[in-house]
Amino acid sequence: MSRIRRLVYVHLIPPVTERGFSSLSVVTAPLDFTEIQISRLPTVVILGRPNVGKSALFNRLIRRREALVYNTPDDHVTRDIREGLAKLADLRFRVLDSAGLEAEATSASILHRTASITAHVLAKSHFALFLTDARAGLHPLDLQVGKWLRKHAPQIKPIVAMNKSESLFDATGSLASAANEMCRLGFGDPIAISAETGLGMHDLYMSLKPLLEDYMLRVFTEGARENSHNEVEDSSDLDVDKSKLPLQLAIVGRPNVGKSTLLNALLQEDRVLVGPEAGLTRDSIRTQFEFQGRTIYLVDTAGWLQRTKQEKGAASLSIMQSRKSLLRAHIIALVLDAEEIINARRSMKHAEVVIARRAVEEGRGLVVIVNKMDLLRGKHKSSSYEKVMEVVPQEIQTIIPQVTGIPVVFISALEGRGRTTVLNQVIDTYEKWCSRLPTARLNRWLQKVMSRHSWKDQAAQPKVKYFTQVKARPPTFVAFVRGKTQLSDTDIRFLTKSLKEDFDLGGIPIRIMQRSVTKKDASGSGNSKNSHSVCRVVERTVSDKRSIVDE
């Protein structure tokens, strides 16, 4: 595939006349998909009946194992739409992994709801890959999917791909027989591929290449004037503000607390499957959207449960994927159920305490979201509503004393209330998490704060030479202490609390390290390699690590 290159492409340049952009001139130039903005790339959705290898092909195209792949003939692993950036040789396009389609699914069933979401996404897509199983041959469900596709997307002619074809490449002619059978779908000649081994990716490349190039040609034709007009503005934005970099937000919590409903409310569209059934979400769904000029990558995770030895299959993979999503995120949105808080008479159960403490231990920002507040409204529940608003922030601070000022937002995701409040709070926490303080300002602060601290033994008071921030995300500081006397754990806690109060850094973990310097180092003489300085890291982030050990 690396030897396949484009020969001639069309690039549109609008010439400037006295009255502006009057016409378009056409010149030949290479078209590099890697230089096109992701938002402008074409979208290709992978469709097919259940268990034909759609998620495996999705992972092959994005070159990562993100979608769950598990052989479950009696169950459907994929239930939501997963989006990724496909990299097929020099082609780039957005690819969507969809749930298996069954035309005979009963109304209001999970399969019927997933089909509705797929139809909604298909209407916004540009191309489709119709995946079938070459080893099983033409299945009656394949014909039903073809009929469903003609009904919901008559403007799209899909590319039919026979997956699992690696065993049919022999001299018996079985591959040709399977291809002839797939022609009955009425979408043209199929291509033989194997998502597991990568066989047939060259043929897939050759099938997609002219379609994607024609699409980009139309995009350039329609937007040439506007893009050329904005070239001056785009070229001025060379300096990137780190606080405006894409934000990674993970929505975590126990099953059936409304995580997927919250994601749909934030996106303002039915993006993922929701319902009264617990455990609907299996994949960690990652999607992107814009809010107030900021790009936010949003991840909806499966319900957080303790992984047991009896837990196997797709459920076990979902638990592992949820934990990986927590480690990749910048900000963790921990979702609680307001009704369960009233019934259980406590704000957080063990699993939720584990999530919060692990987020703090990994240095992530934490925002607590109390969902389903609409269930506590009414004449007979007004006292419960007020009680939750008052008690939850206090209990959370008691349970997680390592981080003060954890923000708590009360919403109703089902009604769409609190969307703007949640996003503003997340962005505020993220900016604190990325904040950097000048060394001069920190040392002026240090002189004031050390003078008001009550030392037990004034003679043994540590002499802090200076205080500086060495990194952000989360904010990490180093206190250079003169002599052998070290700051105690009480002193570290005092400095941490003072930092959060004086610089408004509540709700995020702060790490303070201390380094001992000798008089020789303090005077600036001598070689640093020969100095006897001692570095000791002191982190007050987790009080009980035994509670987060996997069982």
TrEMBL record:
Residues 43-164, 249-372 form the G domain. Keywords: GTP-binding, Nucleotide-binding, Repeat, Ribosome biogenesis. One of its GO terms (biological process) is ribosome biogenesis. It comes from the Eukaryota. InterPro entries: GTP-bd, GTPase_Der, KH_dom-like, KH_dom-like_a/b, P-loop_NTPase, Small_GTP-bd. SUPFAM superfamilies: P-loop containing nucleoside triphosphate hydrolases (SSF52540). Residues 436-515 form the GTPase Der C-terminal KH-domain-like domain. One of its GO terms (molecular function) is GTP binding. HAMAP family: GTPase_Der. NCBIfam families: GTPase_EngA, small_GTP. Belongs to the TRAFAC class TrmE-Era-EngA-EngB-Septin-like GTPase superfamily. EngA (Der) GTPase family. This is GTPase Der. It comes from Glycine max. The gene is LOC100813316.
